Amino acid sequence: MEIFKEITPLKAFLKAKKQHHNTIGLVPTMGALHRGHLSLIETCQSQNNVTICSIFVNPAQFNNASDLEHYPRTLEQDTLLLEKVECDAIFCPESSEMYPGPPLVRFDFGPLDKIMEGEFRPGHFSGVALVVSKLFNIIEPDNAYFGQKDWQQFAIIRQLTEELRFNLKLHTVETTREDDGLAMSSRNQRLKGPDRLNAGVFYQALLAARESLIKGIALDKVRHTVREMVNARPGVSLEYFEVADSINLNQLDSVKASDRPILCIAGFVGEVRLIDNMFLY
């Protein structure tokens, strides 16, 4: 497995691979890898000749300095894990390699980045779009893989790819979960004791909401029930629960208004912020 911290040698490596008509797959991550990331790697490996995993904690997408400071960084363990699953290469640059100077470029995705995550994390998706654009330009993958858990992020990257005409195909991979249903996330490492036990309520709330909506219970009533269910847990608070069209992310007043509605939830367990989602059908 090759490890690259600089862009120039990585591009030379990729150029040699492409000269032999190898397809390149990219799995962008911020490290602290878990089984969810490995499912992305495995999917990528099954569809490409060469798999690149990027590990970069992107400062441009954090609007909370404390969140950036406490985000887990486990490069040594991540490297061993990727070596074990026979990933072909890691790109793990320093911030100075990706951002030689303070970034000035900003992205605006209209309504896509003003709701849900965008409402509570202003500027977050502009930072995501900036670093993803850089990775797509540097690596020029044939395919790129993202987890379903970050569905709003995927919708925005899809818009970015279409508008900037990146020559690649995007893929989502189903969310990998813990035994109690908690969506796997690098942030889960910060959950201890009772907080870890209570974190499962977000998945439980999604299941309950889906069951109620399928039965025809009104969306307003379901929203109220979800809020009560989540906030009843000690140390847990709901930030939002929304039902949206999974393509354009328009928030729905009725699940009948979309062919494929998605239920999205976010909140805090102590100081740890978690997100999750689930398709209604």
Describe the structure.
By secondary structure, the protein is α/β, with parallel strands linked by helices. It has helices spanning 7-19, 35-47, 65-70, 75-84, 95-98, 117-120, 124-139, 151-164, 193-198, 201-214, 219-231; strands at 2-4, 24-29, 50-55, 89-91, 143-147, 169-173, 236-245, 261-269, 272-279. The protein is built from 11 helices and 9 strands. A hairpin with a 2-residue loop joins strand 8 (261-269) and strand 9. Helix 7 (124-139) crosses helix 8 and helix 10 (201-214) runs antiparallel to helix 11. The longest helix has 16 residues, at 124-139. The model has no long low-confidence stretch (mean pLDDT 96).
Which helices and strands occur, and which strands form pairs?
Blueprint: E1 2-4, H1 7-19, E2 24-29, H2 35-47, E3 50-55, H3 65-70, H4 75-84, E4 89-91, H5 95-98, H6 117-120, H7 124-139, E5 143-147, H8 151-164, E6 169-173, H9 193-198, H10 201-214, H11 219-231, E7 236-245, E8 261-269, E9 272-279
Parallel strand pairs: 1-4, 2-3, 2-5, 3-4, 5-6
Antiparallel strand pairs: 7-8, 8-9
